[in-house]
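Students often ask why inverse folding is considered easier than folding. One informal answer: many sequences map to the same fold, so there is more than one right answer. In these notes we will look at a single instance of the problem. The structure comes first.
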C-alpha cells in the first residue's frame, strides 16, 4: 500500500528537448558532423518541407529543430563554384584552324 502511495505522489518526469534554443549551425555540428564533413550538398535540391519531414522522422528531436536544420541545409545547398569561375579565367578556346585546301578535279 505504501509503494502505491509513493508511485501516485511522485511527479511525472517530463521529457526535455536537448535541441531547444540551438542555432541550425550548432544542430548540424552536434548531430551531423560524425558522418558529414560539411552541410553543403546534403539537401540535394529537396524542398524545405520534405527535408524537414525526413529529418524529423530520422534525426531530430522535434519538429522545430527539424525545420530549422532543413532551412539551414537548403540555404547552403549551392553548387560549388567551378575552377574557372574561381580564378576569373575564361574557358579555353581551341585555336582557329586554317581552311581546308580545295582539291582540284
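Output (designed amino acids):
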Amino acid at each position: 500500500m505504501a509503494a502505491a502511495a509513493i508511485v501516485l505522489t511522485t511527479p511525472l518526469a517530463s521529457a526535455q528537448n536537448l535541441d531547444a534554443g540551438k542555432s541550425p549551425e550548432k544542430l548540424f555540428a552536434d548531430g551531423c558532423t560524425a558522418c558529414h564533413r560539411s552541410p553543403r550538398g546534403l539537401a540535394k535540391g529537396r524542398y524545405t518541407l520534405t527535408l524537414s519531414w525526413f529529418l524529423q522522422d530520422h534525426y531530430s528531436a522535434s519538429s522545430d529543430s527539424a525545420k530549422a536544420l532543413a532551412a539551414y541545409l537548403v540555404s547552403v545547398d549551392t553548387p560549388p563554384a567551378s575552377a574557372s569561375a574561381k580564378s576569373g579565367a575564361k574557358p579555353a578556346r581551341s585555336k582557329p584552324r586554317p581552311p581546308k585546301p580545295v582539291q582540284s578535279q
